[in-house]
Amino acid sequence: MTVRCPVCQFVGPPKSDAGGSLKCSNTSCGVGLKVCQNQLQYGACNQAVLASEAAESLCRYCRLNRVVPNLNDPVRLKQWKLLEAAKHRTLAAMEEAGFPVPPSNDDKGPMLYFEFKDDLNGPVTTGHLNGCITIYLKEADSVFREVNRVEFGEAQRTLIGHFRHELGHYFWDRVVAPGPISQFRSVFGDETNPTYATAQAKYYSDGPLPRWQLSFVSAYASMHPWEDFAETFGLYQDIHAVLTTNSHFNASDADLTDLDAMVKGYRELGIFVNELNRDMGLQDLVPEVFNDTITGKLRFIHSLRSI
């Protein structure tokens, strides 16, 4: 069994002593660990729990779940496990990029939690509100997701993409609204004029702004500054995660403290991987067009990191 240590982030099989206790196999760490209950019961988690957290059976990522579907239903269990895997990977990469999940005793802003819902009790909309990220369970169905991707004209629609977008809304509430709001407005526009409801109605009646590619990372980003921020936040997470993985396999190293170097590395890698994907008839890894406006928005998000 492979687990991720919550202290040093090392991923590997834990060591077991003569008494059966587990500890991190990273020799420079060696902290005592427990296997998350969601892994033991459902095979749905690779994040370990600190042995010192005697009262906790779930890892800190799984403890963020407030609503899960009926896990006795094999179809819903499969869908939830796909969502959980995407959530774990997204959160781990996001924290590595400098956007940590707040501790449970934090009082500086809305707390983060997740609700994974089916539609047995009525329609479900994927979205974010006051720290709660709701994901419609059917998004884990690849056919449902592809139909919606085509219908809404999205270059990409993935589970990880959903999480990154909604986490962008969460971090806007937590970091931007109480902080650099004037800087945000100078880059993304005034979120109060027009109102979100007005902008949303106009978008769905008239479509995206003409030539939106010149100023926005996606058509949806052109709807309102909140969506622009969330879409750009998601792109920033894409860039950091892809470059980190690329570096891990020793393909090349990008300076992840330098936004310009990150964009340059991502564009160059994107050209290469896009061509590989086209060889296989797959969607482009990097559909975005980068210019000074897009880079300026990414730079604002880069400035929000806590590392």
Please characterize this protein's 3D structure.
It is a single chain. The relative contact order is 0.08. This protein has helices at about 35-40, 75-95, 140-150, 160-175, 180-190, 195-205, 225-250, 260-280, 290-305, and strands spanning about 5, 10, 15, 20-25, 30-35, 50, 65, 115, 125-130, 130-135. A four-stranded antiparallel sheet has the order 3-4-5-6, with no helix packed on it. It has a four-stranded mixed sheet with strand order 7-8-10-9, with helices on one face. The longest helix is centred in the last third of the chain and has 24 residues, at about 225-250. It has nine helices and ten strands.
Q: Biggest sheet: strands side by side, in what order?
A: 3-4-5-6
Alpha-carbon distance between the termini? 31 Å
Written as H for each helix and E for each strand, in order along the chain, the element string is: EEEEEHEEHEEEHHHHHHH
| Shape descriptor | globular
What is the count of helical runs?
A: 9
Catalogue the unreliable spans.
none
Helix proportion: 40-55%
Structural class: alpha+beta
Radius of gyration: 20 Å
Mean pLDDT comes to 94
Main sheet attributes: strand count, strand direction, barrel closure: 4 strands, antiparallel
* Quaternary structure annotation: single chain
- The number of strands is 10
